[in-house]
């Protein structure tokens, strides 16, 4: 098996010190040309601290602002053209998963100029050269994109995953002060994504001893901090951010499974935030996994350990199913019930189930065919 490339563990810094830290990092590294990818709202804290103005005291700086969610080919073309024109020696991505993915893709194509962007969604090009420094600073606790060697790219409304060593960060900065300022629904959606990634990484077919250990650590941190964080306890931001980062490191090895396979349609066609889309179905898949293990007996030690860990952390027992757990969790997070986010018309339901990403389904711990999905989700 080809080893999965692994990037650095995130550097946890004093809350609120990201500007000083990055200025020192650029100055110490003697970087002279800096390119910044950012969102708009997520960069407001840096603007208030005059980050760009301070950087320009000793480096040439270009910033691509207001990166749109779910990067597509138009966004990537603009990003690559801007990076190539500026020819930076360091790229800094500051934002949520979409910002970080665009920064990763743009750096990768800049450092691998012979790769035609048009083939990214149809082939597996060699994206391994890394000559431009890449520093990632997440401002949401959810996707864990700062820790993975793959990035999301949408084409004609369809989600694709692009992979390569050049998508790995050279340095990751974790400042918990950056993740606590979002709207409650945004915090909930991001945190749910992290929670689900940890659970799916525990049971994924491609999981390893390392990824399961990392996923377990992330699940403990995320499950214990998500609700309090959304309800206003900013003191939990460090735990939630660390859980998200551990989830990213775990799926960097294991990738995700069936709940993610069904999530992309809900996001693309109904605008359901990604983490909410994933979490809306995962309770059903957890119950299916646990019932199957109980009925047939665990086939492997990891299945036995995964079932035990999932029950223990989510506090599941004879009176508390995972579906119940997520119904209550959505309520505590101020969201409507999970099934509220599913299509209702039979034709759309069929289209949704047919849209399931096959790569993610094949990574699910239990064999799944098209006929299994409606049964697991209670749709028949």
CATH superfamily of the largest domain: Dehydroquinate synthase-like - alpha domain
Number of domains: 2
CATH class of the largest domain: Mainly Alpha
Q: Looking at CATH, which topology of the largest domain would you report?
A: Dehydroquinate synthase-like, alpha domain
Number of helical regions? 16
Q: Termini, distance in Å?
A: 39 Å
> Helix share of residues?
40-55%
Query: In terms of structural class, how would the helical and strand content be classed?
Result: alpha/beta
The largest sheet is: 6 strands, parallel
- What is the number of beta strands? 8
Determine the mean pLDDT: 92
Q: Using the alpha-carbon principal axes, give the shape.
A: globular
Relative strand content: 5-15%
Contiguous uncertain segments of 5+ residues: none
CATH architecture of the largest domain: Up-down Bundle
Strand order of the largest sheet: 1-8-5-4-2-3
CA radius of gyration is 20 Å
Order of helices and strands: EHEHHEHEHEEEEHHHHHHHHHHH
